[in-house]
Write a structure and sequence with these properties.
4-stranded antiparallel sheet; mainly beta
């Protein structure tokens, strides 16, 4: 995909164009949905009262798109964290609520959409 400068905010160079993302964390490149196109995942490990969270960046129709923070978008309230589980055939995005009995919802990423795993 290109070059990354770590740990954040991130700058990405592709075809001599520079894009910047105001998301903090560790960036990695991974094909989340095995469609042959790599996504950039920015994993924020959490800090003070901010829980761990994820951002997904993809190239879509020639334009870089960055998601909002996953836990902040899907979670309802504080104590929600998002983590990437890589040890599966298709990586899983796990959304956990540390305040409500550690309930967990798991999602697969599919072409820009998070689909809940039932």
């Amino acid at each position: 995909m290109g070059e990354l400068n770590l740990p954040g905010p991130h700058k990405y160079r592709s075809n001599e164009q520079l894009a910047a993302f105001q998301h903090w964390g560790e960036a990695s490149i991974l094909d989340l949905d095995h469609d042959g196109l790599e996504e950039m995942i920015i994993e924020f490990p959490g800090l003070h009262l901010a829980a761990p969270d994820l951002t997904i960046v993809r190239l879509h129709k020639g334009t870089l798109e960055a998601s909002s923070y996953i836990a902040s978008s899907l979670g309802k309230g504080q104590g929600i964290s998002a983590n990437l589980i890589r040890d599966q055939l298709l990586p899983i995005i796990s959304l956990s609520n540390e305040q409500e009995n550690r309930s967990t919802l798991n999602y697969h990423y599919d072409n820009g959409i998070l689909k809940i795993i039932k």
